[in-house]
Design a protein that fits this description.
single chain; 168 residues; alpha+beta; Umud Fragment, subunit A; 2 domains; seven-stranded antiparallel beta sheet; 4 helices; 25% strand
Length: 168
Amino acid sequence: MLRQLWKIISNILLAVLVALVVILVLPRVFGVQPLVVLSGSMEPTYHVGSLIYVTNFNPKELKIGDPVTYEISLDKTMVTHRIIKIDAENQCVYTKGDANNVADGGAIPYIDIIGKPLFSIPYIGKIAYYFTTQQGSIILITGVVVILILVLMSELISKADRDESRFH
């Protein structure tokens, strides 16, 4: 009975770990960047704490009304706002957050645009953001090690039991 419970718990933990990898790491393999929504400037389109998935874009395909993710300032802060004007000649766009009353301060050059959001998953961003902190990283790494140990121990115990039952 205890062995079955052990196996169930280790399988659940392994499934959670695999889900985190699928949600946070796998998209990067396909050129999609997961980002956490930290402010309410795009409510209700993208809620605070959501995880948005941003993909590359073709500047020629940009349209007024498209949300875009771009970098601002030297600290590489990322912002996702909606295009309200396109200046194709100067290769830039003007943006505004859905929840903001006024447009953003200046033009966003195409070169600063990271991509366009494909979709978002509510609430998952809070978890993803936590794992980017020092404490969250330590917990994640420790959790992975513990899960691996649990899975390996479960297998070793099962193998030892099978070996023991053969000799009796």
